[in-house]
Amino acid sequence: MAVKVDVVRVFTDREGHHGNPLGVVDAAAVPVDDRQALAKELGYSETVFVELPEAGDERARLQIYTPVRELPFAGHPTVGTAWWLEQRGTPVKVLAAAAGDIATRKSGEAWWVRARAEWAPEFSLYPLDTVEEVMASDPEKFGEGHHYVWSWVDKLEHSVRTRMFAPDLGIVEDEATGAAAVRLTENLRLSLLITQGKGSQLRTTYDPDGWIEVGGLVRSEDSRQI
Q1: What confidence tens digit (pLDDT) does each residue in 25-71 have?
Q2: Domain that includes residue 108, residue range
Q3: Beta bridge pairs of residue 190
Q4: Is the pTM of this model over 0.90?
Q5: 8: which of 39, 75, 91, 143 is 20 to 30 A away, CA to CA?
Q6: Which value, in Å, is the radius of gyration of the alpha carbons in the chain?
């Protein structure tokens, strides 16, 4: 039986360009033991399996998979899922992930999620002197782990340029990484405007109590049948 996979791009720019593709699947359509294999076949940096809420429910449960493993939390899958649930007419206030309850909110056209910084994986952060150095970084030179290279675009505006590499997750380069944005926000103790990859845009808000919000715009792509 074919499985429908909705595809969205998360953290696009204002014109709807760029963004990180996300596969979104009704959890009821795929047994738990088959989800990792489907995520690998799809090949997106993450695929989510969502237990669809009933009308009026304020919570939805989801699982997040990279091509090689399940994650307790990730940014672009949760932002994308919050947007996707609203589009189907069942918006929720909380996404229940393995890491914990993730609050969601909408502001203008953007969707935001709120999470503990420690829910995100550890990232090796590489501050570079210029945007040109960030763009010249070679993914092949990064090995095991999560690697986030960044530089200031405008320090007064809290604007940065970034790229992320995680080859051991099956991701040579990730186009837009909410979890890395959370870790960088925690490290700098600043709310940030982040441009990542080819031009994806993420925003964060910093809370000294350890809660970080990450948000951005989402656009839909054509669905797939697997």
Answers
A1: 999 999 999 999 999 999 999 999 999 998 889 999 999 999 999 99
A2: 4-114
A3: none
A4: yes
A5: 143
A6: 16
